Amino acid sequence: MIKAWFKSGSPWIWMTAGAVSINLLLVVGLLLLIAIRGLGHFWPADILEYQYQNQQGQHSVIIGEEVDESLLHEAQARAAGFEVLNDVEYLHQYLVKTGNRDILGSDFRWIQDQYIREKTAPDDLIAVERREWGNFYGRLRAVKQNGEVIAAGEQAWPVAQEKLAKDLVLFDEIDRLQDKDVGAINYNLERLRLKQRALELKNQWNDTKAQEFAALKTTYEAQYKVIQAELSKLNREIKTYSIVVSEAGGREIDIPLNRVVKLSRPNAMSVLDKSIEYVKNFKAFITEEPREANTEGGIFPAIFGTVLMVMLMAVVVTPFGVIAAVYLREYAKQGLITRIIRIAVNNLAGVPSIVYGVFGLGFFVYIIGGSIDKIFFPEAAPAPVFGTPGLLWASLTLALLTLPVVIVATEEGLSRIPKSIREGSLALGATKAETLWRTVLPMASPAIMTGLILAVARAAGEVAPLMLVGVVKLAPTLPLDGNFPYLHLDRKFMHLGFHIYDVGFQSPNVEAARPLVYATSLLLVMVIVGLNMFAIAIRNNLREKYRALEN
């Protein structure tokens, strides 16, 4: 009976279904772990106040967020110099985010439960998110204007919130003027300098050109002076207010409001207030630029760079992959050479990605990019334009990396189209090229989209080759802006995958970076899923469109 059951093949079906189910559970579990650890970072955690007495009997007050806890074995505790009370096997300890790095020297510290005398969460504790030095935890004492106290005690909180809102508006205006207006003027002045250098190299520089360029330069300098005057006014205005806060030890410190991003009292918030704050925190994470060596702020430049690079890669890899597949399937003579080419294409899919990065650096950047600079941008020498890693070379390198996937998927799609459809088209008087363009390729478009989906999924998560051909830790400007030619393919860019690597393995503040690794990983998965869902929707639409023709 059992032997017959095995011969029927049913056990193998059940084993296959079980393996698929286990894999699915593992994937779902991994995504849940990333989601819980990542999304939990944005919830406004309560600020706790600990009355702490260490083993020497010294009393201190610790203020901060409780971010983790663990058990320390008795032997490890004694080796670390802790006195184990009550003869327990494990010491219960908490990881507290104390902030105040400019005062304490570190954002985090471990404290042992046996030394905690009291733990409370007073409503008056505040969290100050700063542009530098991370968070500050303590109590708000007063608000100052030009060094004079204008509010103290309970009145300080609403006044501080009001003045901070005004300063944030001013900061955004300053940021806009510096990044967009001043940046545009500097960009135009640099282009003017390069044009002058180009004319000098061609021996076309004369007095007429000199007067014309001088007039343009004068115009730009006049615009710059106007903007500088506006910036000076805004900078004086934004430095008007400051807050007085006290840290856990009782020392009072002045913090200028222009260095503050947000003030919050999480202990005094209701669940609804915390939910609203949670949404704001997540929105800020995906729309703002990073700060503090990528351990604070948002990751918008990395999201933008990832999506833009993948889109450019898709634009390049799709036509080349389809053309190669059409030639191999429809035009090439099926023989030994064609089989060797197919084997080579399949082997290329297994080449380590870092090898593609080395090839892209040597061929695209140094050979092609260097040649482009010599021919088209001699005036920029010795500074490289395209002869340095950038967005274009990163996209081409990943297009080369994913090309075998598109070729194989397209060939499989072409092979599934019945021969009778080609013969019918030719019998009606169409040429072979017309048959391919009007009949075969449209019917193979779902397979082409499948190859593109696989290519996007792989390219969006690649990091190793990008480290050699264009990705950077922090990009001063986006590759797409309002300056002609608008899309700057020579610029370096940020990438979510590299951001995860940098924050997780290169950050000087490991504990602060850990939740950002999970949050960025989740966002990278969401970006890949979003791009794939868009491509899948197009593929399904094409499949439904040509299903009747296939039947």
Automatic annotation (TrEMBL):
Its main location: membrane. Residues 303-535 form the ABC transmembrane type-1 domain. Keywords: Cell membrane, Coiled coil, Membrane, Transmembrane, Transmembrane helix, Transport. It is a multi-pass membrane protein. The chain crosses the membrane at residues 12-36, 299-328, 348-372, 392-414, 435-457, 516-538. It is found in: Cell inner membrane; Cell membrane. It comes from the Bacteria. Pfam families: BPD_transp_1. Residues 184-237 form a coiled coil. NCBIfam families: 3a0107s02c. Belongs to the binding-protein-dependent transport system permease family. CysTW subfamily. This is Phosphate transport system permease protein PstA. The lineage of its organism: Bacteria, Pseudomonadati, Pseudomonadota, Gammaproteobacteria, Methylococcales.
